[in-house]
Amino acid sequence: MIDALEQDAAVRCAMTAVGREAPSTEELARVAWSVITEPGDGVAGVLIAELGALEALRFALRPGTNRGAPSADRRALVEGLRRWRARADAVAVRQAVEGAQHVGARLVLPGDAAWPAELDDLGPHRPLLLWVRGDAGLLRAEPRAAIVGARAASAYGEVLAAEFAGDLAADGVVIVSGGAYGIDGAAHRAALGVGGPTIAFLAGGVDRAYPQGHQQLLRRVVDSGAVVSEVPCGTAPTKWRFLARNRLIAGISHATVVVEAGWRSGSLNTAGHAAALGRPLGAVPGPVTSAASAGCHRLLREYDARCVTTAAEIRELWAGGVGGATPPGPAADPDQQRLLDAMSRRTPVPATELARRSGLDPERVGSLLGVLELDGIVRRVERGWRKTDA
Amino acid sequence: MIDALEQDAAVRCAMTAVGREAPSTEELARVAWSVITEPGDGVAGVLIAELGALEALRFALRPGTNRGAPSADRRALVEGLRRWRARADAVAVRQAVEGAQHVGARLVLPGDAAWPAELDDLGPHRPLLLWVRGDAGLLRAEPRAAIVGARAASAYGEVLAAEFAGDLAADGVVIVSGGAYGIDGAAHRAALGVGGPTIAFLAGGVDRAYPQGHQQLLRRVVDSGAVVSEVPCGTAPTKWRFLARNRLIAGISHATVVVEAGWRSGSLNTAGHAAALGRPLGAVPGPVTSAASAGCHRLLREYDARCVTTAAEIRELWAGGVGGATPPGPAADPDQQRLLDAMSRRTPVPATELARRSGLDPERVGSLLGVLELDGIVRRVERGWRKTDA
């Protein structure tokens, strides 16, 4: 496949248009990986980190590879090979790059001047690349604050999101959010309203506005901010891609603030990533009688989120200095990290609920908990499992 | 003075009426101390703990004592002697006991079956005694939860206070509060409404309803709960006595929950005592746009209070087991404790603000901070001082 891509003049031309004048085979391989994997594929991440994108690709596509499996857990690798090979198609890669060219997106790769080093803390779940429409320089502008929350926001939440985002953006803080209805939209809009910087991370390709109703808003974000995605143009958002996208919002931001969130809101997932990365996490309280604030109160109770009620209190989240938070090293095993993300230091969670939260199967959860318990990282208590302070 | 009291038949008769059939001289001395001191007088507390009430009283009233001052800090002792002697009056003591007899109050002393051992954690600030109208047995009934908050409560706060207190009291939880308008009143009323147990701690004597408008409510609390005070009958509530009273509410309760509180509400003082005693502290969030919730959000931010939104979450505060919290030993120096109470682990507080919060003079604050810093208990940071995690 790589040979086909290297010899494809259209690919070369499109690569030039997205900012890579003389693309190396390694760069092409990285783009190919972004097409054949789902975002956040930790097995691919480990493989690429070990071998480089080109060698990893050759390894993955070579017949017989599923026999002598090296480093990564064998079963996971075999499953990966099956997934990846089904998608290994030079045409799809060309279409991805041409799609980006078509909408004027730029390709930003790890190590580029525009690459935000904070994303490297995601370890094997680091994105392979970013597609950026608008000002790619914003990816490194500091500080960056994620203002996120429920689509089904109340007037209370939208007014506060706008107030906080407007205040911060007027001050040069980059407002990061997910482009969704509700809190996200209010945050982007307020930043644009004061002529401040804002970045929207999409779960689908940057060539398609999602949600449709935010076509105009996202157009404005492209014009004076940046719309970013790790998935190729032409890719539709899926439930999984929304969850994966959330790790980018948390990962790139120096602090994450949840303004309103229902009890099972997706923004709790973003918050969980921020907490797992050791990034400051704020939650805005609201009436206990409002379902739209239940998730925020849950963050205060279960995730040790900081209660924030004003833009000034949000600024305090990174007052220790941007980059001052010490992210824990990425966990050796991506499943382990997913499991730990699902746990709390304070509130015990039963194993069945952990399986549900982490999306791992109950048996795997059981064996991981056993290992983590031996390491003193988690502890079994009366009503479930919790992380220790170690 | 003690001799006069011992020989006073009226005192003896009144003491019998308040539950001490054959009062010892030590007991009489303790009542005398409660009349001649303000509540929470730490200097008197240390003296009584060291010598016993009777010896301490003899020592304090003996001419010339202000010369060879022993244990307690000399200046504080000399000041104490001046205050105490000005009030040392056998008639006032008789009136206190007769006042209690008149309203059918009982005298509860440390070591009595009804004495709540939790109050002993207050160290030198432990009350000398308690006057109880109603069911003194409630002082030991478990668990006990303080539900407190602003007098200037909103409908939101009063409804929640009633909901929580009613739910808990129906379950046998003793609802402790301060008998004030607003949150306190709503909590007592809800407990009475479900036929549950409730205790009102007053800042003045138990013979006078304060506030006047709660005369009927406090009457009902006497009838099916308990109205308690450490100050003698006939004593009017003062600002100081309200603050001192708050330590009893926090001290006797297995958990303290602040439902609504303004930015400088007195209930933050109660919360501060709970935190200093290592007792679970909960705060109910509310709209950030409501001034009546600002103090609660402050507790979440600065006091590591736990966010509670339901009665079930309040129960979790003592779920580790009643008495499961480990209170830190009382500080050797009462001023030190007052200073530490005014500090936070999270938010640095400037020394001038610490002086204001603790009521200590700035020079004393400076010298105490120096000592505490050497011990590694506090740390000077960029914007002030904070407690370390040691």
Describe the structure.
Two copies of one chain form a homodimer. Chain A is α/β, with parallel strands linked by helices and 390 residues long. Chain A has helices spanning 2-6, 9-17, 25-36, 42-51, 53-61, 74-87, 90-102, 155-170, 183-193, 215-224, 239-252, 267-276, 294-302, 311-317, 334-341, 351-358, 362-374, and strands spanning 106-108, 130-134, 144-148, 174-177, 198-201, 226-229, 255-258, 281-283, 306-307, 378-381, 384-387. In chain A, helix 12 (267-276) links the parallel strand 7 (255-258) and strand 8 (281-283). In chain A, strands 1-2-6-5-4-3-7-8-9 form a nine-stranded mixed sheet, sandwiched between helices. In chain A, strands 10-11 form a two-stranded antiparallel ribbon. Chain A starts with a helix and ends with a strand. Chain A folds into three domains: 2-99, no CATH class; 117-317, Rossmann fold (3-Layer(aba) Sandwich), CATH 3.40.50; 334-387, Orthogonal Bundle (Arc Repressor Mutant, subunit A), CATH 1.10.10.10. Chain A contains 17 helices and eleven strands. Chain A binds chain B through residues 156, 160, 284-289, 293-294, 297, 300-301, 306-310, 313, and chain B through 156, 160, 284-289, 293-294, 297, 300-301, 306-310, 313.
